[in-house]
Amino acid sequence: MLSSYFEFGFWDIALSIGLLYFIYIKFIRKEPEEEVVKMVQPLQKQDMTIEQLKKYNGVDDEHLCFAIFDKIYEVTKAAHFYGPPDGPYKNLAGRDATISLGTMDTNKIVDGINDISTMTPEQIETAEDWASKLSMKYPVVGNLLKE
User: Fold this and answer.
1) pTM
2) Which domain holds residue 71?
3) pLDDT tens figures, 87-120
4) Which CATH number do you get for residue 72?
5) Phi/psi at 81 (nearest 5 deg)?
6) DSSP the chain
7) Residue 22's pLDDT band (boundaries 50, 70, 90)?
């Protein structure tokens, strides 16, 4: 007689699982916290020397910039890629990145203005592809001056 009270059919189990899921969603599960995006004023257009560009590394200034083929791009809105501490391209910020992007080696950083005569035609083409993509996504804020 008692066993008839504790028999569960397919629909009883399905309804129980659905009810438990609803309770979990409604009362237990926490919504992921939204990442706070810090709004940064756009950088004023200006030509810079390599020494001036070094300031825009995400540490010394909140803006992130790097140069490729003497054009300076502000990439602040993609700090998760180009900024410290964890961006995969963090080494490029505040520098001339022509050789690094051409060789696809972000650890190959040259202090000062890059000499593209040391690059192969394939590396130059790769760097040109990067420059093309960057120009579609990020503003050019100036030219890199030879000092």
Assistant:
1) 0.73
2) 50-143
3) 999 999 999 999 999 999 999 888 899 999 999 9
4) 3.10.120.10
5) -95, -45
6) -GGGTS---HHHHHHHHHHHHHHIIIIIPPPPPPPPPPP-PPPPP--B-HHHHTT-BSSSSS-BEEEETTEEEE-GGGHHHHSTTT-TTGGGTTSB-HHHHHHT-TT---SSS--GGGS-HHHHHHHHHHHHHHHHHS-EEEEB---
7) confident
